[in-house]
């Protein structure tokens, strides 16, 4: 089972960097990637999500 998907960001993958809002405003990362990571982080701490697994 998968908790979520995140878009591929080659520059960030190469730099092995976690993105922030400033990366989006600097056009280093896409807003969709930031949103996907925020959603995934929320699911990681949501007990309801883990109960289904």
Largest sheet: none
- Provide the succession of SSEs: HHHH
Please tally the β strands and state the result: 0
Number of helices: 4
Structural class: mainly alpha
Beginning-to-end CA distance, first to last residue: 8 Å
How helix-rich are the residues, as a percent range? 55-70%
Q: Assign an overall shape.
A: elongated
- Evaluate the radius of gyration: 13 Å
Mean pLDDT metric: 79
β-strand amount: under 5%
- Which regions are unreliable across 5 or more consecutive residues at pLDDT < 50? none
Report on this structure.
The protein is an all-alpha fold and 53 residues long. The chain has helices spanning 10-15, 21-25, 31-44, 47-52. It is built from 4 helices and no strands. The model has no long low-confidence stretch (mean pLDDT 79).
List the helices and strands and how they pair.
Layout: H1 10-15, H2 21-25, H3 31-44, H4 47-52
């Amino acid at each position: 089972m998968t908790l979520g998907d995140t878009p591929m960001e080659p520059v960030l993958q190469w730099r092995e960097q976690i993105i922030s809002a400033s990366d989006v405003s600097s056009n280093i990362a896409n807003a969709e990637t930031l949103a996907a990571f925020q959603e995934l982080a929320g699911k990681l701490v949501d007990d309801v999500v883990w109960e289904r697994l």
